[in-house]
Amino acid sequence: MKLAPQLVITAIAVAAPIAATAAERVHLANGFDMRCDHHAEVGSVVRLYMSHGESSFIEMKPAEITSYETVPDPPAPAASAPEARTEARLTPADLHLMLADAGEQHNVDADLLASIVKAESNGNARAVSHAGARGLMQLMPGTAADLGVDDSFAPDQNVRGGSAYLDELLNRYHDNIALALAAYNAGPAAVDKYHGIPPYHETRAYVARVIHEFNRRVIARQREAARELQRARTSAAISAALQASSSR
C-alpha cells in the first residue's frame, strides 16, 4: 500500500464541521479548478470568497482565472424518494469490498478511502451537497467528467473516480495525507497558493475530521491484528501441547 498503516499526526485544530457554501466553480489558467461562494474584483485582483461572508477569501490575478461556472442547485428529490433512500445506502460489507478493491487498484489505504466516504456522504450514494458535489465521495460534475465518471450516483463509478483523484493528489503532494485531503476539499490551487493547508475553517475542519476517523480505523485494525496474532499463538501452543501429550 502507498500509505503505511500508521497514525497520521497533523497540527490542525479540530473544529465543528460546517456545511459547504460554495456556489461557483472557478476554472484556472493552470488547468485546475476550485469552488467558492462568490467572487468580486477588488482593485487589480479578484477575490474568491469561500463563504457567504467576506472574511475568508483568496486573492488571484485576473490572468490566473479563465472562467466562472455557476453551480446549480441540487436536484429536487424524485417522487420515489423513499425507495431511492432504501437503495442509496450500501451495506457495510458491500461498501467495504468496493473500497478495498479501489484501494488495491490505486495503491491507497482502504481505511483512508472509508474515512473520506464517512466525512463526505456518510455512506449515502445519492448525497448531494449545496455546491453540487455528488455521491459517496462527493465528486463535482466537472471533476467527475475529467475522471471519466458518467454517473456520480453509481457507487462503483464514484468510488473509482474519487480513489483515482485522491491517488493523483497523494502523488502530487508526495503522500502527505493532510495536504492531499486539503486539496480534495478546497482544490489544489488553494493548497499551492498557501503552500499548505488553506486557512479556511471548512477545510481545516474537514482535514481534521478525516484524519481523526482514519486514525481511529488504524488503531482498530492494529488491535484486531494483535488479537488474531494472540489467537494464532494460543492455537499453536495448544496443538504443541496435544502433540507432546500423545507422543508420551
Summarize the structure.
By secondary structure, this protein is mainly alpha-helical.
Topology record:
Layout: E1 24-28, E2 33-36, E3 38-42, E4 45-49, E5 57-60, E6 65-70, H1 81-88, H2 92-106, H3 110-120, H4 141-146, H5 155-172, H6 177-186, H7 188-194, H8 201-246
Antiparallel strand pairs: 1-2, 1-6, 3-4, 4-5
Helix pairs in contact: 2-3, 2-5, 3-8, 5-6, 6-7, 6-8
Describe the fold and architecture.
The protein has 248 residues and is mainly alpha-helical. It has a domain at 80-246: Orthogonal Bundle (Lysozyme). It contains eight helices and six strands; from the N terminus they run ββββββαααααααα. It has a three-stranded antiparallel β-sheet, covered by helices on one side. The chain has a three-stranded antiparallel β-sheet with strand order 3-4-5, with no helix packed on it. A hairpin with a 4-residue loop joins strand 1 (24-28) and strand 2. Helix 3 crosses helix 8, helix 5 packs across helix 6 and helix 6 (177-186) crosses helix 7. The chain is elongated and about 95 Å long.
Strand order of the largest sheet: 2-1-6
Give the oligomeric state of the chains in this entry, treating copies of one chain as homo and distinct chains as hetero.
single chain
The overall strand count is 6
Overall mean pLDDT stands at 83
Structural class: mainly alpha
User: Looking at the structure, what is the overall shape?
Assistant: elongated
Largest β-sheet summary: 3 strands, antiparallel
Query: Which architecture name of the domain at 80-246 does CATH use?
Result: Orthogonal Bundle
Level of helix content? 40-55%
